Q: What sequence folds into this?
């Protein structure tokens, strides 16, 4: 079984910033997809903001098992309708991984229900990611910790709900900490946030980062058949109740009528 | 210390449905506020959909410790901007209680990050709410369970994230179950969902329901000073890092510049 | 890859109660193992209380990926040392599934940290298990709910910590509810509690129950290499700190000395 | 209402180590109790390992709203029966706060259900505790972070279950991180773990540490009447079922008989 993976990138700084273009000549999304494609059982493709419908048609989402999202400068250019479509795909069972500055992307804010804010500093300082959940499948193979010599700092408080599990916590040279690997479930979809990945550093060329992302793709994949209508709120007619009952009192709706939304 | 409480009602069926108007001649919001005002330490006021800005100006939210929300037929008439304002108030520390059909209200869906769907049946059947968290402050005084002789059924799966705590689970005469009391935290705000309250039954006149709602107001109240800007993502300049560091590598932003959103 | 599964049964009522012996002539553990062995990728064996060391030597636990536990009349006859050995195996990464009356077994109480109590009634009443987590892998293939025509009732409050996820909630004919499928993580081990299985009813011959148990075995399996010493608390010598530091102030221990326990 | 607080200390190093004796001439427990007694609404007393029954008789626990626990060198000298009595008090509703090396105390390991292990280093290095849950009542008044110039390092992975909420995460000068403020619920009791407090440093004289501990006492206090028998598993006779049912099938127990344990 192959996990159909789609790496979405906003693809802006790769076009406008010399440092980023040199680090990721085919784009960050392509670098991430290339590293995923070196794993058996994962088949990664890419889509970008500039594609029609941002490359995220209903058909393509239906054929995607796990979606990765990297965005930073152009969160506001993502269509509200497409962001909602992505969330519905998650609720129906698509796995989703948010990378670094995607903490402020529309789908992440929508799925978390919070402000998703943090403190930050661009100084190329050392980050050390500690595994806080021993033997978690997402941390497989990276040891008790790993280091990134140059990264942007993200600091607490991170404005997200309590996760299902905290997998990584980061130490920063400048004195801050950050919960940098967090798991969530939203509907039938598994969601993972992974902190590293500032575009002016070679983070997505790092072997440990690549390994965590591949692990996360496998973890996020829910093999169950996708839920056909993940927002349906079906009426159960009185005569189809599991136990026999007789209707009593006043009601608002006629039999079979849709509920209010 | 008095908890400044605001009960928001959409106030539609009270005007259009004879059964509802007879049960709640001053409106459901007024009935709920009246019962809250019989508790020492709670001062409850009301607001309705039809008020200017739905009665939810920034000033009023800033002066509200706990907001209760009942809506059903007119979720779509609530302004997106005001729904977002309500969510920001929660993130800043305002407590919030969602009642019954408010599971499909804009603020609840926004705060949960999920579809918030369920199954339902209007048959006036018996509901029995069991306390699943012994001695939880929200369940204080109602015993191990209490019954409502006539209620609408809501059935699982309830499309919400795993709660911090499950306080009540409902048994329905027709054979379904529902997690009917759930706690969440969103930013600095405590959030409680409480299932009962279909408008064609006298649920908000029930002493146990009134007691749970008053308990929930006390539980949801966060006495800390509200966070001034709950969505801020401040830059920490290099020379203000807690530990002395030297900037390295390329950066996107000039010192003091705002981040992307 | 085959999941090495061990079904542990206390094997008491099968020997002393005619009804149980007729339902499960080879023992409940054997019936459960037989049904598991009809699944590709699962190889199930059995062990019983009466075996030397209850069949749970260190070597056998080390070679077990997932352990299932059924006990009722003889919880007190399980050796404390072996119960602790089982818990350490869980912390090292062994999956574990507790069935029905195992809620009062020594390993379950030890892993939960709570009283694990509940209310109960033996009346052969109808139980209906509703899936509360849509598309959860443990609920794969059983539909939105399934029924057991005759079961013992277990009622809330169930004295356990909040789970990672609530997968099933049961409706009982007599009016109670119960959170009957709960997931936990303890160290590197995945833990699942599954309610049905009173010994005087044919529950473990039910196709849905068998399916859930097989699903749970797959879910609980952590393929990572087991943690060698899951209770170790290693000292990090000053000169092996990730960042260079100089020792300051008074200390209790000499370099390399073990900590207190 | 006054919160009846009891600070338990093992009181060993205060008697045997010159540094500790000079820092805490009346004992660490006394220093902590003294600082708590400077708060309105808290009345703190002390008990030590060397007292009869370690100062923790059933009567005294019944009259204690919140218990604090500090131990390090003598965990093994605490009676198993008294540790279990303490846990039962928590399940019945007593709040409990575990300080620093109490992570390896018998009651903490029993309540967590895990190994509670970590890595450590005694080097008097700098610790900086960041608030990860904005406006959490336990963090009231300490700002976004606070520093301790000399502390023992505790490093991840910390072998505990996922908490209800992560309130503090620590940064250490030597390069490690630690989740240093964690909330749990066990039965009706609120539990908080707070990391700082190595006995050779003046940590319990620090104003921020004192403030957090007083905040935690208020947070942990459950004002509900204590549960009389927190381990009871009562039978519900068939004729007392909430819904009328008729007994069917075979049963193990006679009416009114106790269940197995």
A:
């Amino acid at each position: 079984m192959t996990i159909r993976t789609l790496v979405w990138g906003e693809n802006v700084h790769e076009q406008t910033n010399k440092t980023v273009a040199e680090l990721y000549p085919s784009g960050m999304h392509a670098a991430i997809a290339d590293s995923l494609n070196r794993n058996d059982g994962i088949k990664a493709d890419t889509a970008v903001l500039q594609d029609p419908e941002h490359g995220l048609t209903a058909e393509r989402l239906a054929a995607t098992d796990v979606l990765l999202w990297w965005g930073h400068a152009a969160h506001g250019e993502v269509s509200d309708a497409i962001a909602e479509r992505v969330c519905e795909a998650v609720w129906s069972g698509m796995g989703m991984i948010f990378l670094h500055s995607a903490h402020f992307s529309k789908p992440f804010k929508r799925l978390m229900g919070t402000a998703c804010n943090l403190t930050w500093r661009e100084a190329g300082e050392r980050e050390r990611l500690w595994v806080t959940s021993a033997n978690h499948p997402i941390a497989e193979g990276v040891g008790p910790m790993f280091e990134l010599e140059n990264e942007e700092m993200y600091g607490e408080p991170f404005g997200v709900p309590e996760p299902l599990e905290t997998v990584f916590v980061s130490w920063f040279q400048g004195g801050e900490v950050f919960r940098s690997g967090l798991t969530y479930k939203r509907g039938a979809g598994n969601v993972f946030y992974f902190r590293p990945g500032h575009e002016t550093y070679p983070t997505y060329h790092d072997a440990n980062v690549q390994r965590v992302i591949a692990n996360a793709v496998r973890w996020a994949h829910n093999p169950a058949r996708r839920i056909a209508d993940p927002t349906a709120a079906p009426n159960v007619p009185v005569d189809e109740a599991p136990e026999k009952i007789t209707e009593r009192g006043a009601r608002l709706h006629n039999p079979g009528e849709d509920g209010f939304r």
Observations:
- The first strand of chain A starts at residue 3 and ends at 9.
- The first helix of chain A runs from residue 13 to 16.
